[in-house]
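Whiteboard transcription, Tuesday session. T.W. wrote the structure tokens on the left side:
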């Protein structure tokens, strides 16, 4: 038995040794662990717990866990701070711990890897196996070990009195703890009692009642802070609030009414204006000044001259053709278009987008040949007092509105163009050769086309170059090739304003009708208009300006729009901005500015560092008053009240000049205060420009078959003027118009002649002459001229006719009376200084009158003596007949014999009134 037992023991020992050397499996652990360790502690609590398993268990050594190894994590740290130990070799339980206490504020998160090792095949650990690497994340839990600390120990602020503020100042405290639980400040508290302030959890301090600087100028109090762990701040903070006397932010020194005296040049609008921000820190200021002059005319003060006159004054090349002239017998294609009142003499025509179309006659179109031309016009889309367009149909809802549609001859071919608007787009459709060349469309996208305001367009075409000026500013087009957006034009001359021709069927005659206002539509063929002329045409004579750009401070910007109605200032410094505002000026270069009110606005925008409490300024409104200028006195003289010429002279081919010695003088009358303090007027002659004169017959209208007014048209054309001959049932006015100097008008009016047909001489014809300037704002005195026709002496039957024919040379010093039924001229109106010949003639005529009167008295005396000799018989009729009496008088003893035959008169005593009318 013993031998058998020993044999079994040896056998079991051999089996155990063999089994112990069979370490077939690696230890196994989880792939990832999450750990937590408290700050200032070293034991890590893992989830899941650390256990290493080995499938070789329960074999001794091979199935047991001998240790764990820690490796560096992704961040390259972990081996120094942490270690892993085996708590039970048979179960594989382990523990992870830090080698020293951890600090959350230093590092809050740790990551590393860990492996498990078995005990191998024997006590020496031979052939031990290791598990895979598992990642361990360890978070250090914070401990509320720090107290809040204020960023500043003292906080100061200044506020104006009498107001409640949402925030006066903000205090801030920080906590050094790493976790949100202990690092956040949960609330602040004012520890000083009985102060009119409150603080919220974010540290914003506000006043709970309006502050009064007179009651308490400075408020001082203390505040503290608490974190979410209820730790109080280590040291409290002091807050000092200074109450400033009341300050009203905004513009100071604003004057609502500004007066401008015409002729004073430029004046500052805001000489004493400055911005008060009440110590608010501002980093950007923008002010917009608006001067509203659109109510005066088309964008600015254009009452002075018409569009045609402005072109003349701006030096534009002559030869423009007015496509929308005032209706007249010579230009009747605009008579059917409705017009609107305009402040200048240029008519404003209304187009309703339907049937308002002007067809320019062929003779006018034939003068517009060539592919070089300049088209200019004033345009306003839509607008008031315009009849609404007809409801769009489905087919024409997107149709363009045509302003000008024209086909003209170009050498041996025909070219076509049309100017249209569509939405906010302006397009020029140009066809160089309707028979061969491909059309080209020039397109501009402009806000000015659709803003319902007046705008000046100037289109200079020098194909293939096209230049567009809108309100004097150049715009570049985008070229678009087009196969034809309109029906192919026929090769013949024609031009429409306000639409384009359709297929000329009974139902469709025009297409693309325009809806809006047009004025001053002109075309000038030939070379294009210079840019300087275009700028002058649009330039306003009044507007906003800036005094001296060199005085602008750094960071200041100024911008003025083309119409000089809006000026924008921008800057970042209050002092520089105030100096710049005080240099904004109003400029008016017109000698006789249009009086009236111009509304004025000032809009301010501020940007502050603290946007929540930034100031907001309301818009300021005022007005500029342009006072009445010194009225120019236009005086016409040198024309006698009577003009007597033999009738054959009026019947000659050139007629008789009506105003050969006309003189026009313009003077300014202004008040003077002499030494005696009596108000007087003084007149200064000034160089001037007239824009029109009228010659109008008084009484019966002229009979075109028997009488007419003539003028030298070569002189008129050479001086750039035009003649308007207006006739109607009761009116005949001969008008010379155009902006020119006085001397030019004198030359033209001196060439006006009156001519009669053979045998059409009358006894008298009266004319009235007057001139004006600035579209009729200022007019001259009216000269009335009576034309007398001297017939053959054999046909004279009354001495008063001879006297009337000579009245142009009489200028008596007493008031006029009546002699034989003829009215003598007014000696105080249009009188001239008589020459030597005039004096001699006056003496002769006076002697003649005296002789006639003496002869009459002598005859009456003889007649009375004859009646006394016959016994004093009385003649109740008191008449006498001396038809055979002949008196011949030769006062000058030259060729001026005067014979009066057939003198008849009533027997009456000469009255004192008649005697006073006789020349001395």
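and on the right, the sequence the group agreed on:
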């Amino acid at each position: 038995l013993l031998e058998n037992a020993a044999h079994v023991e040896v056998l079991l020992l051999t089996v155990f040794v063999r089994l112990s050397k069979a370490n077939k499996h690696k230890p196994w652990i989880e792939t990832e662990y999450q750990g937590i360790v408290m700050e200032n502690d070293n034991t890590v609590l893992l989830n899941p717990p650390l256990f290493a398993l080995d499938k070789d268990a329960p074999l001794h050594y091979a199935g047991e866990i001998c240790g764990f190894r820690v490796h560096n994590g992704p961040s390259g740290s972990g081996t120094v701070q942490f270690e892993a130990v085996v708590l039970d070799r048979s179960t594989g339980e382990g523990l992870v711990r830090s080698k020293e206490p951890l600090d959350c504020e230093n590092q809050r998160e740790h990551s590393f890897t860990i492996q498990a090792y078995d005990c191998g095949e024997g006590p020496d650990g031979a052939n031990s196996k290791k598990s895979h690497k598992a990642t361990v994340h360890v978070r250090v839990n914070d401990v509320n070990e720090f107290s809040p600390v204020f960023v500043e120990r003292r906080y100061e602020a200044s506020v104006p009195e009498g107001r409640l503020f949402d925030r006066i100042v903000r205090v801030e405290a920080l906590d050094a703890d790493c976790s949100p639980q202990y690092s956040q400040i949960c609330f602040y508290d004012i520890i000083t009692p009985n102060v009119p302030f409150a603080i919220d959890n974010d540290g914003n301090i506000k006043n709970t009642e309006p502050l009064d600087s007179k009651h308490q100028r400075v408020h001082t109090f203390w505040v503290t802070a608490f974190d979410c762990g209820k730790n109080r701040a280590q040291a409290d903070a002091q807050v000092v609030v200074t109450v400033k006397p009341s300050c009203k932010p905004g513009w100071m020194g604003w004057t609502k009414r500004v007066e401008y005296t015409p002729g004073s040049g430029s004046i500052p609008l805001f000489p004493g204006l400055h911005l008060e921000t009440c110590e608010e820190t501002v980093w950007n200021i923008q002010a917009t000044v608006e001067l509203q002059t659109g109510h005066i005319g088309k964008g600015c003060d254009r009452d002075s001259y018409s569009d045609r006159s402005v072109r003349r004054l701006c030096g534009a090349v002559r030869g423009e053709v007015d496509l929308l002239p005032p209706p007249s017998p010579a230009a009747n294609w605009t008579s059917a278009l409705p017009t609107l009142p305009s402040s200048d003499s240029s008519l404003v025509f209304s187009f309703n987008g339907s049937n308002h179309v002007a067809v320019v006659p062929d003779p006018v179109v034939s003068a517009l040949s060539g592919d070089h031309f300049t088209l200019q016009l004033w345009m306003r889309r839509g607008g008031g007092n315009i009849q609404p367009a007809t409801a769009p149909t489905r087919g024409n809802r997107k149709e363009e509105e045509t302003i000008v549609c024209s086909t003209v001859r170009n050498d041996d071919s025909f070219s076509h163009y049309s100017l249209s608007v569509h939405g906010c787009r302006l397009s020029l459709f140009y066809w160089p050769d309707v028979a061969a060349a491909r059309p080209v469309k020039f397109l501009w996208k402009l806000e000015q086309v659709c803003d319902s305001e007046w705008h000046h367009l100037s289109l200079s075409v020098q194909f293939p170059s096209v230049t567009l000026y809108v309100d004097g500013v150049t715009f570049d087009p985008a070229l678009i090739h087009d196969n034809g957006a309109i029906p192919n034009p026929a090769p013949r001359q024609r031009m429409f304003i306000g639409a384009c021709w359709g297929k000329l069927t009974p139902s469709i005659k025009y297409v693309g009708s325009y809806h809006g206002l047009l004025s001053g539509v002109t075309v000038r063929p030939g070379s294009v208009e210079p840019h300087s002329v275009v700028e002058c045409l649009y330039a306003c004579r009044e507007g906003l300006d800036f005094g001296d750009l060199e005085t602008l401070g750094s960071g200041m910007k100024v911008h003025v729009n083309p119409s000089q109605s809006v000026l924008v200032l921008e800057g970042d410094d209050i002092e520089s901005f105030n100096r710049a505002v005080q240099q904004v000026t109003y400029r008016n270069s017109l000698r006789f500015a249009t009086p009236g009110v111009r509304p004025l606005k000032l809009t301010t925008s501020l940007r502050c560092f603290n946007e929540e409490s930034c100031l907001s300024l309301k818009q300021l409104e005022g007005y500029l008053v342009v006072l009445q200028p010194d009225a120019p006195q236009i005086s016409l003289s040198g024309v006698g009240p009577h003009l007597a010429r033999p009738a054959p002279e009026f019947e000659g081919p050139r007629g008789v000049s009506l105003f050969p010695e006309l003189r026009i003088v313009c003077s300014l009358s202004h008040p003077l205060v002499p030494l005696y303090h009596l108000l007087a007027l003084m007149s200064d002659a000034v160089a001037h420009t007239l824009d029109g004169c009228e010659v109008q017959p008084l009484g019966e209208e002229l009979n075109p078959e028997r009488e007419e007014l003539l003028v030298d048209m070569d002189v008129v054309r050479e001086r750039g003027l035009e003649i308007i001959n207006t006739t109607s049932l009761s009116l005949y006015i001969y008008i010379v118009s155009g902006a020119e100097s006085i001397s030019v008008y004198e030359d033209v009016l001196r060439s006006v002649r009156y001519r009669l047909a053979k045998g059409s001489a009358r006894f008298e014809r009266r004319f009235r002459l007057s001139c004006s300037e600035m579209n009729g704002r200022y007019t001259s005195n009216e000269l009335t001229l009576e034309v007398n026709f001297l017939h053959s002496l054999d046909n004279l039957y009354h001495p008063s006719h001879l006297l009337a024919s000579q009245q142009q040379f009489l200028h008596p010093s007493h008031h006029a009376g009546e002699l034989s039924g003829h009215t003598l001229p007014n000696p105080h109106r249009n009188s001239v200084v008589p020459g030597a010949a005039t004096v001699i003639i006056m003496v002769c005529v006076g002697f003649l009158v005296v002789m006639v009167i003496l002869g009459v008295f002598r005859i009456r005396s003889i007649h009375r003596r004859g009646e006394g000799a016959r016994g004093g018989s009385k003649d109740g009729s008191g008449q006498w007949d001396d038809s055979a009496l002949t008196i011949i008088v030769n006062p000058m003893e030259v060729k001026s014999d005067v014979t009066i035959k057939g003198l008849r008169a009533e027997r009456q005593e000469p009255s004192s009134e008649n005697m006073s009318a006789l020349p001395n």
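Someone added at the bottom: Residues 384-397, 672-685, 793-835, 868-920 have pLDDT under 50 and may be disordered.
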